[in-house]
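Example for tutorial group B:
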């Protein structure tokens, strides 16, 4: 818990690091006739370059497909292709880790690259995801809950948001 709070900045407001990288819940004040819990696409942070916007959109889309695109399974957990691929013993976890590394490499294409600490956090997420996935069955369920790609997309968005605020 301590490492999660200090290193990954996880707390109840961001669903302990597993929030959706592609959609956000509409605040109650902005609902205007829509039902509570409605979602909309996340806005692109202001003050970032066209290239950074393109990279963020690509990373968000890939993370969403890998972690959440297949919807809800029987236990109320949103899963994606990473969880399905991870079911294949041994090789599935390697393929899933390689796809996660491709997402990190895509994120590193922002202007001037990622800072070392952000890149390191992303690679730690991939390593944790890979390590969890190696445990048969239970690891696959925990892997689907951990959502490393979504965490990495949110890390990229947080970094770009701070950089955008600095540019404004």
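The residue assignment follows.
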């Amino acid at each position: 818990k301590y490492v999660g709070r200090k290193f990954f900045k996880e707390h109840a407001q961001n669903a302990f690091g597993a929030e959706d990288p592609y959609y956000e819940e509409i605040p109650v004040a902005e609902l205007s006739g829509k039902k509570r819990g409605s979602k909309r696409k996340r806005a692109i942070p202001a003050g970032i370059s066209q290239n950074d916007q393109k990279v963020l959109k690509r990373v968000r889309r890939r993370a969403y497909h890998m972690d959440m695109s297949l919807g809800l399974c029987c236990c109320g957990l949103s899963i994606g292709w990473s969880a399905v691929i991870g079911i294949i013993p041994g090789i599935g976890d390697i393929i899933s880790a390689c796809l996660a590394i491709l997402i990190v490499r895509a994120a590193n294409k922002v202007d001037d690259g990622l800072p070392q600490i952000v890149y390191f956090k992303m690679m730690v997420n991939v390593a944790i995801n890979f390590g969890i996935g190696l445990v048969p069955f239970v690891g696959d369920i925990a892997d689907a809950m951990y959502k490393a790609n979504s965490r990495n997309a949110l890390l990229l968005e947080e970094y770009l948001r701070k950089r955008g605020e600095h540019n404004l």
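The radius of gyration is 16 Å. Compare this with the pattern of hydrophobic and polar residues in the output above.
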